[in-house]
Amino acid sequence: MDGTFRPPEEAGARLIVDLGAIAANWRQLADLAAPAECAAVVKADAYGLGAAQVAPALWDAGARTFFVAQLAEARVLRPLLPDAVIYVLNGLTPGATAIVSELRARPVLGSLPEIGEWQAAGGGEAAIHVDTGMNRLGITLEEAFGVAERYSAGTLGFQPSLIMSHLACADEEAHPLTVRQIADFRKIVAAFGDVPASLANSSATIANPDARFDLCRPGIAVYGGNPVPWRDNPVRPVVRLEGRVVQVRDVPEGQGVGYGAAEMTKRPSRIAIVSVGYADGFLRAGGSSSLRTGAETIVRGQRCPLIGRISMDLLAVDVTDMPLGSVSRGDFACLLGDGITVDEVAGHAGTISYEMLTGLGARYARTYTI
Ligand SMILES: *Cc1c(COP(=O)(O)O)cnc(C)c1O
């Protein structure tokens, strides 16, 4: 988000972010995590919802430890949260030690060269990331035992404030890789003795007590996405998206609607054209065609399906079943909220809530409620 304020009458849609729900979700996770500490992952501008608003709300709810992906995100966060612990998940950029120190951030060191550079520069507290099976970031188990030995011998040169790893399959119920990752991580944690440990993302914080260790790192659940897809979402929805109806038109039976005439009217139809499109992050893949149904919207309290493809700035909603005259120009169609979840819309587009949230566009009139 670029931070520009858009008056609602100038924008095609309004996005309402419920900071109260974000705080409640975090508190629910913190209660589950206890006695472990509960951090908050606010990378990618707090999953697209606006770190400048979300991070202080989380601090007020009680969060004291925050995770971002990049140093630039720590720079945004630091003045907002002068006393927070801020970890940078993507690690130490070559030559960035001085900036990390200036921002009082803590890098999550994920390779031996990073550890070496941090040590040589006389860096302060930092996390050490151990790979237990994701094969993305982190030192190997063997390397970790070596680092633990140096730590025990007093030759590591800095204080590890956290030993962490990341689960690859936590969003699948009882996945065997999760069991193996927890077991391997336990051995590493034991080798580091008194250093606090962190493994759980949202899914594991909720569904896997064995993975909670000393610090949980939920992201998506704070923002209302379902971290346990095999059961009902335990957290509250956070975003509401309402697109403005630009016009309502009657279309005879047998006509194509939108680009490619991908969907034909099966009856004389009434179509509401709404001022939201894929440029707003309302993913094109969530559109409808004669071969597959797309996302749904709520117009005046009633579910109405999309009809035809989603274009850059517009989408079409089939409001034929609505009472005549009940939908008019200037009305709002609810695209997220009122029971339409981010997971549902993401599912129609063949993706996940994370991608949908982080892709929500910059053109909305954004409001934050508490
Ligand atoms: C993004 C991320 C998290 C948060 O994951 P969610 O599934 O959103 O809860 C935790 N740890 C690491 C290393 C991450 O990259």
Describe the protein's architecture and organization:
With 370 residues, the chain is of the alpha/beta class. The protein has two domains: 19-223, Alanine racemase (TIM Barrel, Alpha-Beta Barrel); 239-340, Lyase, Ornithine Decarboxylase, Chain A, domain 1 (Beta Barrel). The chain contains eleven helices and 19 strands. The strands form four sheets. Strands 1, 11, 14, 15, 16, 17, 18 and 19 form an eight-stranded mixed beta sheet that branches. Strands 3-4-5-6-7-8-9 form a seven-stranded parallel beta sheet. The longest helix has 16 residues, at 176-191. The model has no long low-confidence stretch (mean pLDDT 97). The protein binds pyridoxal-5'-phosphate. The site of pyridoxal-5'-phosphate has 11 residues, from loops. Residues 41, 43, 89, 166, 201-202, 217-221 line the site of pyridoxal-5'-phosphate (PLP).
In the CATH hierarchy, what is the superfamily of the largest domain?
Alanine racemase
Largest beta-sheet characterization: 8 strands, mixed
Got a strand count?
Answer: 19
Cofactors and ligands: pyridoxal-5'-phosphate
Principal-axes shape call:
elongated
Relative helix content = 25-40%
Radius of gyration from CA coordinates: 23 Å
Instruction: Give the SSE string.
Output: EHEEHHEHEHEHEHEHEHEEEEEEEEEHHE
Q: Which blocks of ≥5 consecutive residues have pLDDT under 50?
A: none
Catalytic activity: L-alanine = D-alanine
Cofactor: pyridoxal 5'-phosphate
Pfam family, one: Ala_racemase_N
Keywords: Isomerase, Pyridoxal phosphate
